[in-house]
Predict the 3D structure of the following.
Amino acid sequence: MRQKLANVILCISCALLCLTGTAKIWSAFATGKSAVLLANRDPLIGISNKTLMILVGGIEIGIVLAAVVFRNRKWLPSVAIAMLGSQILVYRYFFAIEGLSRGCPCLGTLGARIPISEPVLSKLLVGVACWFLIGGTAAFIVSYPWTNHNTAESRRRKPTM
């Protein structure tokens, strides 16, 4: 049951990461008005939005690939997903306390094409980041090897010296 829970959490998280990572990388190579916005610097990190989109999109796709490569060690991508979720939430927190305002760059230029208002989309993406943090942490807890050692067989075995 625990492994099924970890599988469900990881599958949903990987699907979301694949969607958002692809959207970021795709948007990083936009032309026209979007190219001007991508050339601007991120007010918190200080690098261009284009570079930031490529880096974060690459990290998201990299986590999906890690989930495939380490499918027998589910705790590894679970930690990466939880860490990414926490970093996104910390970034948004500092963005909010600094009073910075702009459209949500989380999906790049794709965010402007979705028929959802920016405030709703922003709240939805905060929910996704919370999912990454809480879901990744839960998947880590249920899939880390310590949960497999509390079986009747391991209690019956006597330690060897």
